[in-house]
Amino acid sequence: MIQRINHVSITVKNLDNVVRWFRDVMGCTNIWQPYEYKGDFIETVLGIAGANIRVQKVQVQDFVLEFIQYLSPPGKELKGNTNDVGYPHIGFVVDDIAGVYEDMKRKGVRFKSPPRQITDESNPMVGWKVAFLWGPEDMTLELVQSPKK
Questions:
Q1: For 87-115, what is each residue's pLDDT tens digit?
Q2: Per-residue pLDDT averaged across 15-31, rounded?
Q3: 8-72 in CATH: which number?
Q4: Residues 94 and 144: beta-carbon distance below 8 Å
């Protein structure tokens, strides 16, 4: 039986730049040391001949984001939008979405819109505030703030 989600992984072009962005822009501090996998074990596990990868993880509370850079073999770069089937985004809970938005804008982050409050009473997240943004390598990220109770 499944107990919980261990991590979410995203393949990136430049591991160092992505992790630096999550540290400097998002303020992530629990960053694991990078490590490299190559050889028979990782080739077999991934089902990719010649796989040579660098991996680094960023932990946000008890949630782990894993970033993988394939040193070989090269993969193809996928560009997408949030309406493309299978295209992921990562949502982060914040306590002051307006303040985080302003801080990130000062750091040069591009947002799809300023924070907006969900007002549709049929939405189970009515009262929440939300903003979508472009993260490193144009990955889609989301900020959410729950209503004050």
A1: 889 999 999 999 999 999 999 999 999 99
A2: 93
A3: 3.10.180.10
A4: yes
Locate 36 and state its tokens.
Answer: 């490299």
Across 130-144, average pLDDT: 95
Cα 31–98–80 angle (5° rounding)? 60
Instruction: Give the pLDDT of residue 149.
Output: 57
CATH T-level fold of 90-145? 2,3-Dihydroxybiphenyl 1,2-Dioxygenase; domain 1 (3.10.180)
Where do you find CATH 3.10.180.10 in the chain? Answer: 8-72, 90-145
Do residues 93 and 129 make contact, with C-beta atoms less than 8 angstroms apart? Answer: no
**How many residues are given for the chain?**
149
d(CA 28, CA 21): 9
Q: Average pLDDT for residues 55-62, to the nearest whole number?
A: 92
Q: Is the peptide bond before 124 cis (omega within 30 degrees of 0)?
A: no
d(CA 78, CA 137): 11
